Amino acid sequence: MKPAVLTRYRVMAWITGCMLLVLCLCMVLKYGFDTGEKATLYVSQAHGLFYMIYLVVTFDLSSKMKWKFERMLLMMLAGTVPLASFFAERKAVEAVHERGLATAAAGA
């Protein structure tokens, strides 16, 4: 496996996680303080776009690692729960490094 596959996943996991946290903040502002309605709209659309890219990148990593469907599904769902994508990213990096695939491809 090429290291770029893991790098793409890591970047998208962080972007998706950060966008979800910003979206949560916007939702609190919108429904708790009755402000930021337009910001919520724009942030939710941006998060949706980044989440779709995250799904594709997660599928790519999962298929190259030959992970079970359940693991792939949990990783995909991590982009919908605040902070979960950060933990899923950490676990995915550990799993790739355990198999030695990221470093072996870099040396080849």
Automatic annotation (TrEMBL):
Domain DUF3817 as annotated: residue spans: 6-92
Entry protein name: DUF3817 domain-containing protein
Organism expressing this protein natively: Embleya scabrispora
Keyword Transmembrane helix set for record: yes
GO cellular component terms attached to this protein's record: plasma membrane
Pfam families given in the database record: DUF3817 (PF12823)
Domain of life, per lineage: Bacteria
InterPro entries noted in UniProt: DUF3817_TM
Keyword match Methyltransferase: no
Topology with respect to the bilayer: Multi-pass membrane protein
Segments passing through the bilayer: 12-33, 39-57, 69-88
Places the protein is found: Cell membrane
Keywords: Cell membrane, Membrane, Transmembrane, Transmembrane helix
